[in-house]
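call fold(seq) -> tokens
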Amino acid sequence: MPKRLKLHPYLDSDELEKCYRNAQDVVERSQWQIIWLLSVGKTSAEVAEVTGYCLDWIRKLVRRYNAGGPVAVGDGRHHNPGQHRLLDAEQDAELEAELEKAAAAGQAWSSVQVAAWMSARLGRPVRQNRGWDTLQRLTFSTKTPRTRHAKAALDEQDLFKKSLS
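ret:
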């Protein structure tokens, strides 16, 4: 017979069911459902079959609930502030002015160039992907002409284009 997971008695089964039924967030709702089903005597395998979650996740959720109580249930991503931007508003405006000046001169900045510019301003290395993210956030893209083959017959291509019209 499989070993049942033990829940700390913060709430009884009726209160857990109420939390499950009243939850508005889908992640929080499924987590309350898992805890409620375990509290009424279901095995972790039965709960996994009903909810579609794996046994490992159910065990982690129970450990989190036992350690933190009802406040530990829910989607923690909602409270994650995320990573702050590398450039402040003044540096952002300065970079945008540089990009506009380069665009007016017909020069295109790549993500490598933006990362190098950011590294110089911040005094620490900045990876190329952060340069690309910054270019996209500022709605700039690299506008480079399409490469042509070295042996392309341009006059023949022009004749072909004229014959199509």
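Residues 89-104 form the longest helix (16 residues).
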